[in-house]
């Protein structure tokens, strides 16, 4: 009782408000700010999101299995159409980077709907009231989404290996092959998150995202090289960001020069972040 | 204790007077539930996307990607592609019906319908009817878009009739098959997640997008004779008005009716034990 009384005496000022220096001292003692604490909080939130994923594995398994089955089926049915006289495995080498990106882009809808469920259940309001780093709510989700994406990439690459997909490049390029789509898809997931904030139901996210994701994936150099397209489509096909990331990943896997397409892909991601980052932040602040 | 025979007689008379059983009542109730389901479909934005935009995007997408390469193989791709895109739209109608059924089970609508003085078949028939309408609507929109891209129906009146009868039976088979998932799993999100699993082997591993000869030799028998391929062959023959349309139609009908009977009896058993 007496210690509490002392503490109150130390805090309160003659005009009845609380001494701000004292608050700062408390915050400092509990280490609520600072890099170490922020990192710790980010990892805690990331762990929580990943636990949700892995305790309900149906969703992540299906969203990994779907691109895998698309990859296998398209290899079986289109190899002879796209490259008559060549082997199935050479088309697999051509197709895998694209199916990977395509599957991940469709998966970005999931990032949005997880976020939507969090907003619905009031989780973000709760996080606000807790003594954690402000960055953690966003950072934790990003880390969790990245881990999820890397898990999916690994699964798809493993199956691709069975059909004949190989890395013909060095370690650095291989790492780039894993990281580039992660960055690209996270920047697209930002759009899904932005939609999620304003959405009336989690189905809205799917309904808004899919109609434009599909044309971008179809009209890309993914299934067919750009020579296979009618002339009026070639311009769009060759500048489509999905084509860019596909081209970059093919180059990274085959050990060809990849710098230009990698840089263009990263520029697209940066542009998306610069556009949707502030929009999302503003909408989020309004919502909470 | 046995009910008083007099009371039982009065109850029978009341039921007769209110016409709770009988064909007329069953049809009325089914139409009522169909109306309810259609209102739910209208109010869901994703349904409009699924009916109008999805098939269109898939048709145009595959057409743009494949027409040049398929032409090199001597295939007029727009004529070749429309049947499988149509079947895909019907497949998605079946998927949607399963999600709605799971929602009805989860929210207790099913139990509510049980205690109401309506025909027992009404809930099922209402679901099937609503999604048949959705499937037909998607088909009309798709054919209109395809017409704009150069698709032409070359068969006569009976071929057109055959085409639409296959569309209806295929939708019924999809709804029946998917209803098993809904009755077993009972949670909409789970149904949604798992529902994509029959899609890949049946629709994509068919000769719908690419002729059978392009598949690896060991896969060709499966690709050629599985139900979606056979139905696709029949639809294409009807579109082109080819002479073998009749025999392919019968083959497809045999597959679809067989599936309907087999999965239908399973589904009815699950529904009764609900």
UniProtKB/TrEMBL annotation, chain A:
Topological category with respect to the lipid bilayer: Multi-pass membrane protein
Cross-referenced PROSITE patterns: ABC_TM2
One Pfam family matching this protein: ABC2_membrane
Molecular-function annotations in GO: ABC-type transporter activity
Residue ranges crossing the lipid bilayer per the database entry: 60-82, 94-117, 138-163, 175-197, 204-224, 258-281
Compartments in which it is found: Cell membrane
GO cellular component, one term: ATP-binding cassette (ABC) transporter complex
Keywords, in A-Z order: Cell membrane, Membrane, Transmembrane, Transmembrane helix, Transport
Domain ABC transmembrane type-2 residues, every copy: 58-287
Keyword Disulfide bond in record: no
Family: Belongs to the ABC-2 integral membrane protein family.
Protein name from the UniProt record: Transport permease protein
Originating organism: Phormidesmis priestleyi Ana
Source species taxonomy: Bacteria, Bacillati, Cyanobacteriota, Cyanophyceae, Leptolyngbyales
From TrEMBL, chain B:
Family: Belongs to the ABC-2 integral membrane protein family.
Organism of provenance: Phormidesmis priestleyi Ana
Keywords: Cell membrane, Membrane, Transmembrane, Transmembrane helix, Transport
Pfam family, any one: ABC2_membrane
An example molecular function term from Gene Ontology annotations: ABC-type transporter activity
GO CC annotations on file: ATP-binding cassette (ABC) transporter complex
Protein name per UniProt: Transport permease protein
Transmembrane segments: 46-65, 77-101, 121-149, 161-183, 248-268
Localization terms from the record: Cell membrane; Membrane
InterPro entries: ABC2_TM, ABC2_TM_bact-type, ABC_2_transport, Nod_factor_ABC_transporter
Domain ABC transmembrane type-2, residue spans: 46-274
Membrane topology: Multi-pass membrane protein
Taxonomic superkingdom: Bacteria
